[in-house]
């Protein structure tokens, strides 16, 4: 007897409904379609460094990958040499002493690290402070783990720094209302997308805020070497290690975004909790890449100076594009992008970015994707050769009216 085919439907987990496809994932499909139609879009959107890693890192990888004994699984905590390399790097550039065996954890990219940290610390319903504007992954990952998003606004008038009085009121109001506790706060300086740099005073206030309220301060720190004369780590603040986690990355300052090599540092207890999550998710990193990173971390100041010389020339052209669009921006910005407020006539950053894409075939990032506080802004990436930036400038001048 034939059984009737029964109609059925499969539904995804509820968490899938809490997030959308990443903006750049969707937008780059549109850009690809325009390129397929022969429109040759110049992309100034994503912060993916186009410069190569150091020569010694590449040669080390080439040598190591030819060995027959390096292709197996690696330790979840990375090679001891890699952990020691990260610890030495922190001592040299940030003045932070780390126990390489207990306080350093290599990551397959800091974006993945955001998920590991969130899974290790956030229960469903608990609060997590996320900046607005801020890196979208802080919010999307918090939703995926079922935490309650508690946005805090960054404003240009405050130098894109938190309003600590408002944060104190927020914590007090939640306690009075018997809301679940705020467990975690995401911060990011030098800031993406605004380019605002941290001061020692800001980092000290963040540590103090976290210690007094029992909130883990998670500092995402991949931009501290880009157009920045004073790299800072929140872990340099006295007592910070007790309450702070810092993520860092080889993607930006060492031109290794596709390598997915990153790390986090904190106290031994926090690191052990995060390792419990991580060890159930991945199986370590390819050993030749770890060896290459060990060498990349030894880069002298001249390496960073040479890279920044390129970015300074590109930054001048990015500023000229902003001028041509009638945008206002702070010349003191640091990092890999230029953040500008659009003119009133543009209506919004999204409207201006869409017009620039359709009319000038230049892709810039609208600020709304970083939160409502970025609605009137656009962002230009410096990860583009000078020749392309010059062409983008000419297209904008010809096609876009202020």
Automatic annotation (TrEMBL):
Key word Ribonucleoprotein present: no
Alphabetic keyword roster: Aminotransferase, Transferase
InterPro entries: Aminotransferase_I/II_large, LL-DAP_aminotransferase, NHTrfase_class1_PyrdxlP-BS, PyrdxlP-dep_Trfase, PyrdxlP-dep_Trfase_major, PyrdxlP-dep_Trfase_small
Record-listed E.C. numbers: 2.6.1.-
Necessary cofactors: pyridoxal 5'-phosphate
Domain of life: Bacteria
Family per similarity comment: Belongs to the class-I pyridoxal-phosphate-dependent aminotransferase family.
Domain Aminotransferase class I/classII large: 40-396
Presence of keyword Transferase: yes
Pfam families cross-referenced by the UniProt entry: Aminotran_1_2
Source organism of the structure: Tannerella sp. oral taxon BU063 isolate Cell 6/7/9
Enzyme class, UniProt record, top EC level: transferase
GO-annotated molecular function: pyridoxal phosphate binding; transaminase activity
Protein name in the entry: Aminotransferase
